[in-house]
């Protein structure tokens, strides 16, 4: 599947000579961009927002001239960043073919691992560390791949649990690497045994394995699942959860990259996540969806700009996490609700975890971007990203321990 597309950066909002941002007209400009979201000629790598910030869009050659004319006529500034996306994707494929093969059952943070390699590592951990690691297949993908969850625990039942999933959006390759690093540090670094002494960790490194494999074999920038529709494949699994499903920021058009499905939980992958969250809803005190890209610590709500009742606490925890990450290399994250940071997106997993399951502390972590498309930082960047962000996850753990184990709050 050849992309033959151009990647453009479009800015919303205007600044005057003094650098002051003028928001008047930005909502109209955002609606101009939103009108293209239903068109398969356009792939939004970031969401249109109503403030002075760039929006990343991939455009097919057939639509490029019309799109640029529309931008100019509506006063929207833009810049072409990648003139031929296909060339950059092919160059990456060549690099991956030359990369060393991962040893079966081992983990690497020098390359992006495939789904079977990831599962082999998880199963090996279960065999080598049976006292603390339990692997569980919580479901099958549409194409029959195992959805493997790892529970890391010192033992016991009904314990306070941190739950996280990664790669629900297939093209976000850095997300599984992050999940694997967390697992690796908890299990294979003896200095971290205190992190699972009183708190369990339940982690799914690849929540959308069919889509993830498809990005490696066929279409690098594929985002959705691989279930067949009547005219197009796949559903955006992060619009498929049954909380304000098919609201703002979701589409009922099969070919849209934000297609929410013909019904909520139409996808077996989101059903598996739902069932696990519901089964352990009394134990899970923190939910984290690992995504990329953009350096955001966001939380519900995604379906509305209204703030949650516990907004102050969610922001305060986010600030602790950001401070821990920033202390390593100076990397900083923006903190706030999903809608107010990135735009509306109904039917997302973090909204569902908080609104339907009752997990009050629910977050989406958007990791740093890079590489040819933002979703695949160069392999040399994997280690620095996961190492610095790991400090943020330790900050999350510290807060959960203080609140639910030590009773500080």
Automatic annotation (TrEMBL):
InterPro entries associated with the record: M14A-like_propep, M14A_act_pep, Peptidase_M14
CDD domains the record matches: M14_CP_A-B_like (cd03860)
GO biological process, one term: proteolysis
Domain Peptidase M14: 111-400
Subcellular localization(s) per the UniProt record: Secreted
Keywords: Carboxypeptidase, Disulfide bond, Hydrolase, Metal-binding, Metalloprotease, Protease, Secreted, Signal, Zinc
Named cofactor requirement(s): Zn(2+)
Membrane-crossing residue ranges in chain numbering: none
Annotated active site: 366 (proton donor/acceptor)
Gene Ontology MF annotations: metallocarboxypeptidase activity; zinc ion binding
GO cellular component, one term: extracellular space
Signal peptide: 1-19
Superkingdom classification of source: Eukaryota
Family: Belongs to the peptidase M14 family.
Function: Involved in the digestion of the blood meal.
Protein name, per record: Peptidase M14 domain-containing protein
UniProt source species: Aromia moschata
